[in-house]
TrEMBL record:
Domain RNase H type-2: 30-221
Cellular component GO terms held in the UniProt record: cytoplasm; ribonuclease H2 complex
Protein name as annotated: Ribonuclease HII
EC identifiers of the protein: 3.1.26.4
Length: 221
């Protein structure tokens, strides 16, 4: 595929992914937060959520569901997204909370923290707060804002896709640091997911403080 054709496809993809936001912008809603998380399935590490508020003229090509992108591409887009975002925030919950209240509720708490952080950034800029949030597949009952839950939102909303990239890069960087603290589990490669190398690491070295013990109950470890 020629460079021009590839760029044309990316521009079309961006137009499609802006549709949920444009429907709200046309109603006069200015600040829209896209919220997504990463890390609900791993055996180790935190669940991380991000909330990103994009400007209406956001035109960064290539933003999509983080799972569809290479690590190099995610890293590039991560920096560009944070440069262009009106506001953004990160939330996280560690294994001890996940074990105590379950992964879904821990995810919601991380999302609430991310939304609160984005709101704080907006308040510091001009005294505003988010007027609407778009969330990937979940509804946050504790968030007192108009919200829309979008199934596979990271593939159909540019704000949610941007949040998915920010959350993924944030968590991956954290897991790479954990790999230095807890060598032998392959965290720098598997990011805490249950790969063969990860299970071999547990057999050889035991369970670490960043493991989700409830996730290991039925695995024999």
């Amino acid at each position: 595929m020629k460079k021009e054709e590839r760029e044309q496809r990316m521009r079309q993809r961006l137009r499609e992914m802006r549709l949920p936001e444009e429907a709200l912008w046309e109603q006069g809603i200015r600040y829209i937060g896209g919220i997504d998380e990463v890390g609900r399935g791993p055996l180790a590490g935190p669940v991380v959520a991000a909330c990103v508020v994009l400007p209406q003229d956001f035109d960064l090509l290539g933003v999509d569901d983080s799972k569809k992108l290479s690590e190099k591409r995610r890293e590039h887009l991560y920096s560009r997204i944070l440069e262009r975002a009106v506001a953004w925030g990160i939330g996280r919950r560690g294994p001890e909370v996940i074990d105590e209240i379950n992964i879904l509720e821990a995810t919601k708490l991380a999302m609430l923290d991310a939304a609160a952080a984005a709101d704080e950034m907006l308040r510091e800029k001009d005294g505003s707060t988010m007027e609407h949030v778009l969330i990937d597949a979940l509804r946050l009952e504790a968030l007192d804002k108009p919200q829309t839950s979008i199934i596979r939102g990271d593939s159909s909303s540019v704000s949610i896709a941007a949040a998915s990239i920010v959350a993924k890069v944030t968590r991956d960087r954290r897991m790479i640091k954990y790999a230095e603290e807890y060598p032998g589990y392959g965290f720098e490669r598997n990011k805490g997911y249950g790969t063969k190398a990860h299970y071999e690491g547990i057999r050889e070295h035991g369970v670490t403080p960043i493991h989700r013990r409830n996730f290991l109950k039925n695995t024999g470890y």
